[in-house]
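Weekly structure sync, notes
Attendees: PL (lead), two postdocs, one rotation student
Agenda item 3: pending single-chain targets
PL asked that the sequence for the first pending target be pasted directly into the notes so everyone works from the same version. It is reproduced below exactly as submitted, 238 residues in total.
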Amino acid sequence: MDTMNKENYFWKPLKIDRPASKTFVWSDTHFGHKCENWDEPLWKKRGFSSVEDHDEGLILNWNETISNEDDIFHLGDIMFGANGESRLDKILFRLNFKRLFLMGGNHHSGYKQLLNSSYDEDDEDNGVWRKYYGYGKYLYFIPNYFEIFCGGQPFVLSHFPQISWNGQAKGSIMVFGHCHGSLGSSELGAKYLKEAKAEEVCFESHSHPVSFQYLIDKFKNRDNVTYDHHDSNTNNPF
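Predicted structure, written out during the meeting:
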């Protein structure tokens, strides 16, 4: 596997050499989101009886799917609330993973504080933002747009859905969060989800983390669709 270094953060896609069936993605868990001013709290919409029940349910769903030998990408909005750093630390200690690659999203409680205290300059990965949790578990901080290869397939990972992304005309797959299952309710969103190689991985779309092998299999027979001037002759990192 490529070492995680500054090139991977800014322009070089990260190559995952673990099987796509053992590498996962999820988004917008919203741990601790009480939604006190909402008419219907998010945890209730998701079928839970309280925010505490919600958090325990998501931890269970995560650990039912992920082992401490697996990698997982989380595409942002992992949690809400004050005292974010200590609360997020406690959650991450309970979650299974070998390497967790975490985006901030647009609600970055905990993420920002941990990021500011977790930069390593003199380690084997040549200066990256990461935190070690013991037992071989590492947390890596990644930006809200990130490119990878997994199972030989190019993926663009983003907290927000994009209608045009790198390698789209050559079959790269867009994986995103943020929308909580609402994108398909609009005419444009429904067309996008039907035509493009794009998948939302929030809880509302997938109650458990999704393997990259699932995404490869889902889109292997879908034609490449673009909505701009790029075509199969366009050069790009994929």
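Discussion points:
- The radius of gyration is 18 Å.
- Residues 48 and 57 are 8 Å apart (CA to CA).
Action: rotation student to compare against the earlier draft before next sync.
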